[in-house]
Amino acid sequence: NSAFGYRSLYTNRGTANSAFGESALVVNTSGNYNNSFGVRSLWSNITGNNNNAFGYSALQQNTTNNNSAFGYRALASNTTGIGNSAFGHLSLTANTTGIYNTAVGGISLQQNTTGGYKIRAGLDTKWKIGDRTGRGDNGASSAIAIVWPTGHSPFLITIYTSESNKNSEEL
């Protein structure tokens, strides 16, 4: 373990963690293989493993595994969401339980809280997007979004899948 900064890795008993900055990984007890660079980054991580947080309050509320956040408050509210990647200030900052989301660009997917694998991949990060996702029985999954491309009229995107052999968490 490596710790640099006031109270970084303060309660740590985990293995192979790196914390740089005031209160970085401060309450980590048994989480392993985490990298935390920035004041209050991975601040609430207690048992989460394999996380990377770079920036002030990046992954601040995280308690789970396999997330990467790069930028000011990127994925700051994530609690139990897994497999998320956020690149840019405030990207995915409101995500709490959403899984396997990727946000690239400042404030991208900023207000996303629970969606996963959905519409934003491949769209211009400067476009405003409002989306809603849902899940049902038999692998049913849906997403709907209104997209406001810069300099153009808004348009609607819908996605619906059903009777998949994957569970709804994987869609």
Strand content: 25-35%
Which stretches are poorly predicted, pLDDT < 50 over at least 5 residues? none
Number of strands: 10
| Overall average pLDDT | 84
Strand order of the largest sheet: 1-2-3-4-5-6-7
C-alpha geometry: flat
Biggest pleated-sheet summary: 7 strands, parallel
Radius of gyration: 17 Å
Total of helices:
0
What sequence of helices (H) and strands (E) makes up the elements? Answer: EEEEEEEEEE
Structural class: mainly beta
Assign a percent range to the helix content.
Answer: under 10%
Describe, in plain words, how this protein is organized in 3D.
With 171 residues, this protein is an all-beta fold. Helix content is 0%, strand content 26%. The protein has a seven-stranded parallel sheet with strand order 1-2-3-4-5-6-7, with no helix packed on it. A hairpin with a 5-residue loop joins strand 8 and strand 9.
